[in-house]
């Protein structure tokens, strides 16, 4: 029985020493301090969000403003502002190369920035619509001139006539095509082919025909009486 009572007493937690009490006190104070910091941070975020909601509302109601640029702010503040802008139906972007210089710009939906405008902000430049229009026109003129130059070079490298027709007598074409060209030339200039002019009769046949024509002519002159040989 004594052994059982002794084991129970030994298993029970011993009273804290002075050192343990101090450690627990510091732990409680630290937990309380962290809780106060969290609550303060939460209130700070809520106040900042309320402030941004009011500024965004004023921006929307201002018909003269198309965009609004904020001063550089931290990552948490930028996140809150982006969320407020999205809920309000605005377009928002963050610009700036390093974290310390990052800032937010708000745009109304009907005045959403173009890609050229966004690129200007990303380069840290001010957006000038007139300068951008001049650059756009210069690019268009350069593209037109380049296209015209390319077309001129292409036309110079390609002959106006077909080399097959121009040098058909060298590279050869069909006999029918050659004959058609020859016939067309003959019709145009009233020429008769040499083959049509060639007399295929023999000399004796030609002389006999000449004598027969002379005889007929002489008979006509004498009234049809035959002449003595």
* CATH homologous superfamily identity of the domain at 32-127: R3H-like domain
The span between the termini is: 192 Å
SS strand fraction: 5-15%
Secondary structure category = mainly alpha
**What is the arithmetic mean of pLDDT?**
77
Q: What is the percent of helical residues?
A: 55-70%
CATH domain topology of the domain at 32-127:
Ribosomal Protein S8, Chain: A, domain 1
CATH second-level architecture of the domain at 32-127: 2-Layer Sandwich
The number of distinct β-strands equals 3
Question: What is the strand arrangement across the widest sheet?
Answer: 1-3-2
Contiguous helical run count: 10
Low-confidence stretches: 224-229
Shape: elongated
State the CATH class of the domain at 32-127.
Alpha Beta
Radius of gyration: 56 Å
Largest sheet: 3 strands, antiparallel
Following the backbone from N to C, one meets helices and strands in this order, namely HHEHEEHHHHHHH
Protein name: Sperm-associated antigen 7 homolog
Domain R3H: 46-109
GO molecular function: nucleic acid binding
Biased composition (Basic and acidic residues): 21-31, 209-221
Please provide a brief summary of the model.
The protein is mainly alpha-helical and 229 residues long.
Features:
single chain; 229 residues; mainly alpha; Ribosomal Protein S8, Chain: A, domain 1; three-stranded antiparallel sheet; 10 helices; 3 strands; elongated; disordered C terminus
